Amino acid sequence: MMTTTTDPGSPFADSPDGDSRARDSSQTVVLGLGANSGHPQRNLSTAIGALGRWLRPLHVSPLYRSHPVSQLPQPDYFNLVVLGRTELAAEDLLAVLKALEHRQGRRQDQRNSPRPLDIDLLLHGQRICHRPELTLPHPRLRQRRFALAPLVDLAPDLPLPPDGCSAASVLHQLGAEAGGHAEPVPWPPDLDPNRPAPG
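Below the sequence we write its predicted structure tokens.
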């Protein structure tokens, strides 16, 4: 069973690891998931179920609806954030995420086009990395309300590299009008990953 409440002080305490690929200890990982084509809520629910294999324990935020960041006409996105701990290096986890996207039908599509599943690696511990294939923290995390708002729902005090500002502080600094539209919405009852397990 997944939860929407966490203790930010304990499960999300990591030591900075620079640009290393340390494998001897688990790291806190933050992922941003979104979808707006096909069956987006079902695609997100399926992805959450699959991610439990690599992230434990897996904490799932409320579901949000956001306007697409694109000039292309397309439906609104459904977004959420998950947190968990993993022993996978960031590069290995990124490969897993790309495979999950492909499994849900995503291909090398036009930039900002509709997507059946999009998974962004937002944070991997306190790692800071600038490479063509991997940038950590995610370069647009602090400008995206649809990522920050669900993150704050889960772990408002989580320090964000490189300056250690809390997720809640960063969202507050974003202001009411910046960062795009994002509003919480209910899951379909049969897809809600936080629904109580059957008795």
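The two ends are 13 Å apart (CA to CA).
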